Amino acid sequence: MDHHCPWVANCVGFYNYKYFLCMIFNCMATTWTIISTSYPILQRTINHPSSFDYKVAYYIVTSYILSVAVAILITLFFAFHMYLMTLAYTTIEFCEKRSEEDQPFHTR
Questions:
Q1: Calpha distance 67→70 (Å, rounded)
Q2: Which of 57, 65, 73, 85 could form a disulfide with 52 if both were Cys (CB 3.0 to 4.6 A apart)?
Q3: DSSP letter string over 27-89?
Q4: From CA 80, how far away is CA 82, in angstroms rounded?
């Protein structure tokens, strides 16, 4: 077992890490799909503000900005886990290695 992930409400470890990576990848692909398909709506809202109620326009712009922020965060999270996979580290091993480097006089 590597660690308990509260986002998936399960422990991520050796036997289900593949499914965890697939879930992160699918979340990343879904958020970028939402962003790319909703861009024309955002563009129409910004270019023609008189055709929308200001509350609806505010909702559209705010939700688009939040979608971009979530997509960037999930993409960085996926890239971090791909980096860990290339190093053959788990999340716990990465944190332990990093904490050992922070303590120069660590005795073993």
A1: 5
A2: 57
A3: HHHHHHHHHHHHHHHHHHHHH-GGGS-HHHHHHHHHHHHHHHHHHHHHHHHHHHHHHHHHHT-
A4: 5
The domain in which residue 88 lies consists of: 14-102
pTM recorded for the entire structure:
0.78
Greatest CA separation found in the chain?
69
- Backbone φ/ψ region at 9: left (φ over 0), alpha (ψ -120 to 50), beta: left
Distance CA 4, CA 10 (A): 6
Q: Residues with Cβ < 8 Å from 106, sequence gap 6 or more? A: 100
27 catalytically annotated: no
- Is residue 6 situated within a structural domain? no
HSE on the CB side for 35, CA within 13 Å? 14
| Active-site choice (5, 11, 22, 95) | 5
Give pLDDT tens digits for 43-74.
Answer: 998 898 787 788 888 998 999 999 999 999 99
Q: How many domains does the chain have?
A: 1
